[in-house]
Amino acid sequence: MKILFLICICLILTVITLAAEIFRMKKNQKRSETQALKMIRQIRYGQFNINLETFKNEQIKTATAKMLEALKDREAMLAEYKQILMEQNKSLEQSIEREKEAQKFKDDFIAALTHDLKTPVIAEVNTIKMFLSGTFGEISESQKEVLEMMLRSDKDLIELSEMLLQTYKYQQTEIVLSKTKTDLNGYIAEIFQDLYPILNSKQQKPLLNKPDEPVFAEIDTIHFKRVLHNLILNASKYGFADTTITISLEKQEDNAVIKVTNVGEKINPEDIELIFQKYYTGINKFSYIGTGLGLYCVNKIVKAHGGNVKVDVKDDSETTFTVIIPTESGENEQI
Hints:
- With 335 residues, this protein is α+β, with helices and mostly antiparallel strands.
- The protein folds into three domains: 1-35; 113-172; 180-326, Heat Shock Protein 90 (2-Layer Sandwich).
- The chain has helices spanning 2-44, 58-132, 141-172, 184-194, 196-200, 221-238, 269-272, 294-304, and strands at residues 180-183, 205-209, 216-219, 244-252, 255-263, 308-313, 318-326.
- A hairpin with a 4-residue loop joins strand 6 (308-313) and strand 7 (318-326).
- Helix 3 (141-172) crosses helix 8 (294-304), helix 4 (184-194) packs across helix 6 and helix 6 (221-238) runs antiparallel to helix 8.
């Protein structure tokens, strides 16, 4: 009986001892988990001054020390990269600012130069007209031919100067469009008729397609004339001789659609995306001298009218510029 009692006492003591050890292990585990969570929070906020002496397990202590060392190295590397990026960004910002200043200086210079050039050219044009009218006496046919050629060149120079000045204005100031309700049928026909002599110089055949009914739209007749002039002159310049230059007008729902089509040198697909950008002269590979401003101005004016312009090129070298503007618009707009 005594032996059985002693055995029971031993079993009870063993169970108590095991329970105490389990409780101690769970307590240590909980404390370790708490320490781990605290360490993770510290690391998350960039605090690496962790007291490793709180870790009783040497393996965990060693592993944690190595991890902290690696994290500190990474933090130092990131700080160095950040400094390098800040210096590069500062340098890039300075470079962009210098480029903006250079661009503004260039635009201001072009505007001042074209303005100064325009005045003497106008005086020269007036003088040539006086010669041609016989103000200074009779002139021969050969003299008349040379004077007329000079007059055409001077007019081209005046138009180029005006385009440069208008481009400068588009960038520097807001331009108010003075819109009037206009019958595009008669308006386009009149412009097309004015440009007929230019088309005739290359034996190009003008073709005007327009509806029987009037197509009205509110446009700034002066600015929009520059759009049609540029598109028709480009169609002639880059079109082949003895081909047809077609301008068509039609009404599609609430829009007026104007198309200018020629057959000539093809525009490369990569140029189409850039063709309306300022100073872009990719199409001038055909040995024509240009400023790259004509289509830029066209795009600006059309957008100011609430419309858009696009270009389509077919495999048979047919190129079409399409201008779409609303037939009804609100008050005067600004660009």
